[in-house]
Amino acid sequence: MKLPNANVPNFQRRTVYCPAGKVAVGGGAEAQGDDADLVGSFPTDDGRGWIGLGRQNAYSSAGLPVCAICAYA
Questions:
Q1: How many H-runs (helices) and E-runs (strands) does the chain carry?
Q2: Per-block mean pLDDT, blocks of 10 residues, the chain (73 long)
């Protein structure tokens, strides 16, 4: 599953969820923009999705695509 790139405020989480019956066995995110940093990339607490968050030093938002690798539990 994938959330395409979208600009979000710095440090705002974007979460992609797996389809019903599947769990996230991996995932990732990418902070996009000049001097952008990926702050976090980790599974949701319930294991059904993936969270990404980032920031861009000179701006109040950053581009942030997020993906999850999903599999049947």
A1: 0, 8
A2: 97 98 98 96 98 96 98 94
